[in-house]
Amino acid sequence: MEIVNEIEPLREKISLWKKQGLKIGFVPTMGYLHEGHLSLVRESKKRCQVTVVSIFVNPKQFGPSEDYNLYPRDLERDRRLLEQEGVNLLYYPSVEAMYPEGYRTYVEVELLQDKLCGQSRPGHFRGVCTVVLKLFNLVQPDEAYFGWKDAQQVIIIKKMVEDLNLPVKVVPLPLVRDHDGLALSSRNTYLNPEERKAALVLKKSLDLAEKLILAGERDTGRIKEKIKELIQSEPLARIDYVEIVDLKTLESLEQLDREALVALAVFIGRTRLIDNLRVVSGGIEK
Ligand code: PAF
Question: Does the active-site annotation cover 37?
């Protein structure tokens, strides 16, 4: 696996692969990789001749009081994992290379960026879209892989790609859970053992939502109430939001009468965790 930090050698390598007509798959990450990331890498390996992974903890998507400095980093471990998966190139740029002095350009996906996580993390999706567009321009992938764990991110990036006519196919893949159901996230490392147990309330509340929906409940107000009651029964949990929204527009729904996203953000102690389930024509995915 080649490791590239600079833009020029990355461009040279990509242009060589393009000339050879190879299909390029891309997995953008912030590192501290887990099985969720590796499932994206494996899909890319299956579908493409070349797989590129980026590791970049993007300062522009963290608010001033968020965990940019604390965010877990372990390049050596990540490098080993990616090598084992047969990744062709790891792009690992510095902050100065991505955002040199005088950087001024940002991407905003209006409306969608202000909903759900955008309310408690203003500017987050502006930072995500800006870095993802830059990475797409550098890597020029045919396909890029994202996990449904960050459902709002998937929906916003798909919209950005559509609106800006970017020649890349965004492929969302299923959320990966730990053995006990907790959605995998690099931020799970912040949880102490007691909090780790308490965090299971997210998955339990989605299980309850699934049961209600499968039993025929369509009133989103009642479903949200039940979810909130269950989360509030966990003393270490504090709700940021519980929402049921249209899967494309992220508009709040009163009735479950179309494809929808049941999305949660919950603080467990000081760690903010998200989880979701999607109600789609084929059933429920979580
Ligand atoms: O999902 C993430 O890890 C990040 O938001 C991404 C897509 C790598 C952009 O920094």
Answer: yes
Half-sphere CA count of 57, side-chain side, radius 13 A:
17
Residue 175 Cα to ligand 1 middle (Å): 14
Atom 5 in ligand 1: residue holding the nearest Cα = 128
Q: For the chain, what is the mean pLDDT?
A: 98
pLDDT value of residue 64: 96
> What is residue 81's three-state secondary structure?
helix
Q: Is 11 exposed, middle or buried (0-12, 13-18, 19+ CB in 10 A)?
A: middle
Give the distance (Å) from ligand 1 centre to CA of residue 268.
Answer: 22
Is 0.85 surpassed by the pTM of this model?
Answer: yes
- Structural domains in the chain, CATH included, are 2-173 (3.40.50.620), 186-279 (3.30.1300.10)
Is 282's pLDDT higher than 90? Answer: no
Ligand 1 pocket, CB under 6 A:
28-30, 58, 61, 128, 131-132, 150, 153
Residue nearest to atom 9 of ligand 1 (CA): 128
